[in-house]
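Look over both lines before class:
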Amino acid sequence: METIEKAREYARNGMSLYMDTSDEQDIYCEDLIQAYLAGAKSERKELTRWHDPKEELPDGNRDVLIKTTLCTKYHIAFYKANETRNYHWHENNGAIDDDMVIGWREIQEQDGDMGKEKTAAERRKELATLLFCQSYLYYHDMLSSAESKRVCKRISAFQNEHRIAITREQIDSVEIKYNDEP
């Protein structure tokens, strides 16, 4: 259903005021339609707005859509504050020089996904934990070389499916907590 049809349906079915004449009713419906359309246009404009990274940055470790000066114009990436040098932006293939990012915008969730989908930060934590555990098990001879390669392939598939990348520091930040007393 298009926006104008939604506006008409809302105006005609959602009215709780009763006007004295059908002309007044039509005018009121038209006002509601115009208000609905103005709100929808304003919301769309804000949701699809490109932000200048020199003026405004996204929340850290949250996936956003970026425009770059590279041949492939759009990437899903996240911004990581407090990094050294000029590499704050990260995407699936690694870091991107800050000067190459010319714009970013939020990735909007679908209504049905709200509350169900893990955040980008949760996915990165999960990926770091998977890689840490695979290394730990291999190092302690719990996985053979062939088993370790199979696990790596599955972890790589997980990484590609969710389009996430992490740094060595993020993998090294994984901790195992142990409490000997229940």
